[in-house]
Amino acid sequence: MPQKLKITNRLTLAQKKFFSEIIGTFTVVVCATGSVVFDAEVGGILGISFIAFAPFVGVAVSVYLFGKISMAHFNPAVTVGYLITKHLPRNLLAVYICAELIGALLASVFVKLVIGIEANLGANAPNYMFPLPMLFGIEILASALLMVVIYGVVLTKGLKCLSGIAIGGMVGLDIYFFGLISGASMNPVRSLAPALLSGTVTDLWLY
Fold it and tell me: To 10 degrees, the CA torsion angle through 20, 95, 163, 32?
């Protein structure tokens, strides 16, 4: 009986993590891509400040809501990083990746149905006026900066309740400074979902 209870508890915990990652990824991707679509629909008057601020809010809120349940990945890059550093058991890798894919795809469907279809559903688009090595390097830099902040939060056990602001802030800053150059995705499913649903997949190689 105790063994069955342990298995049940593990399944329940995995389910909580799974749905937390779906909802969190959905929120993050809606904010990240929906802001791009909305800005395009109003003629670009809101600009990069709005496009950076929206995901900052989405990430911050999601981290506070789900951080204690799933550690608030919402990003396969973060999940793989946690796996490498042994913050994530191998048996949960598929749970997280599947949840993040589902959440991102649902987000792009939502954006398409509710916000609009402009700007290829908010798909990332690098600026090819810059050389390819620079685009690649900036995307690596943006992702690395995000991971540094995330690990800082993990190592300080929540950064004195500023975890959501710190992580969301880094996402926003990356987008503000690098978004018009490399696209500043930092998140493979954030790039994949709108690209697939809009049929614009030529730039996925970068992300």
Answer: -70
